[in-house]
Amino acid sequence: MKAIVMRGLRVSLALVLSLGLWFGSWFGAESMAVAPSQQTVTEVQVHLGNVNNELKFVPDRLEFEAGKRYKLILDNPSELKHYFTAKDFADVIWTQKVEAGNVEVKGAIHELELKPGAQAEWVFVPLKSGTFELHCSIPGHAEAGMTGQISVL
Length: 153
Ligand SMILES: [Cu+2]
Fold this sequence. Notes:
The protein contains two helices and eleven strands, in the order αβββββαββββββ. It has helices spanning about 1-30, 85-90; strands at about 40-50, 55-60, 60-65, 70-75, 80-85, 95-100, 105, 110-115, 120-125, 130-135, 145-150. The strands form three sheets. It has a six-stranded mixed beta sheet. The chain has a three-stranded mixed beta sheet with strand order 3-11-10. It starts with a helix and ends with a strand. The chain binds copper (II) ion. Copper (II) ion binds near residues 55, 136, 138 and 146. Copper (II) ion binds next to loops.
C-alpha cells in the first residue's frame, strides 16, 4: 500500500517537473510562442481487433516523440468490445481531449472502451520517454495476444 502511494507520488512529481520544464521552454521561446494545444498534430491510427474478430491491436507497436502533439484515432472494426489500456503511458502524457461521437472529454484519461463499430480520437502530448505496455482488459483478450508496446522517444 505504502509502495503504491510512493510510486504515485513519484509519478506525479515527475509529471509536475516535466510540465514545468515543458511550459518553461514554451514561454522561453519567444519567437515561437505556440501553445501546446495549437501545435500541429500527427495522426496515428490504431484498430482494436479486426473484421475477423482476431484479438490484436493493428498495429501493435506505437512510437511517439516526447513534446509533440498526437491524435490517436482508435476504432473497433470487430464484433467484440475492446479496451485500449495503457495506464503507465497515460501517466506520462498530457491529454488535451478525447472525442467520441458528439462528446469531447477533457482531462486525464487512463483507459478507453470501444464497443463494436466505435471510433474515438485521443489528442495528447507525451511528456516523458519510456517503453509502456498496452493491452485490452477484457478477460482473456490480452492472454490471446491483444497486447502491444508504446515507445516514447
Ligand atoms: Cu479486446
